[in-house]
Amino acid sequence: SGVGFAFKISPVSLRGLISWSSEGEIRKIPSEGMNAAISGTVTRDGLMLVVYETGDVRVFDNGEWSTVQLPAARRDGVHFTYADRAGDVWFASARGLHLYRPSLERWSTDRRPFPDSRNRSHEILCLEAGETWLGTGDGVVIQRAGMPDSTIRSIRGTPLGIVTGLALDSAGQIWVTSGA
């Protein structure tokens, strides 16, 4: 990425984390204080991760430093970090090898403009094929990765209204319960 960093011990005026660019600019990173860095790595897309002697794990991403909350068992005693080609960061410690995936998105929000009743979810059915069916306040919403959501508001001309149950039977058929 053309950026590097190191922990400088002396002179005391420069003690702390320093970075440099491919253009040769060297600068101290004041936000990181004077705590000793144990290990660090830079991913291909420029995310910098530093593990400090204090057990703190700090990440520089999109121009800002932030603290990464890792369980103590994963950050204590770290003596080596490595960023793989996928951008995942591996931590080696006396307790084992641990993986941090900075790009992992655990939560996302799917919301439609107010007052859409499909914002109320009453039931969720996850299928092996990767589809997610949501029983909502206005029918069934089907979500497929990389495709727009589809909505089933009626079956054979009968409006579903509020869907309160979804089930998959042994024959692979999906059952819908509603107030219809």
Architecture overview:
This protein is an all-beta fold and 180 residues long. The protein has one helix and 18 strands. The protein has one helix spanning 72-75, and strands at 3-8, 16-21, 26-28, 37-42, 48-52, 57-61, 64-67, 78-83, 89-93, 96-100, 121-126, 132-136, 139-143, 150-152, 154-155, 158-159, 163-168, 174-178. Strands 4-5-6-7 form a four-stranded antiparallel β-sheet, with no helix packed on it. The longest helix is centred in the middle third of the chain and has 4 residues, at 72-75. The radius of gyration is 25 Å and the shape is elongated. The N and C termini lie far apart (58 Å).
Keywords for this structure?
mainly beta, 18 strands, 4-stranded antiparallel beta sheet
Order of helices and strands: EEEEEEEHEEEEEEEEEEE
Radius of gyration: 25 Å
The count of helical stretches stands at 1
Strand content: over 45%
The largest sheet, given as strand count, sense and whether it forms a barrel, is: 4 strands, antiparallel
For the terminal residues, how far apart are their CA atoms? 58 Å
Average of per-residue pLDDT values: 81
Biggest sheet, strands in spatial order? 4-5-6-7
Helical content (DSSP H or I, runs of 4+): under 10%
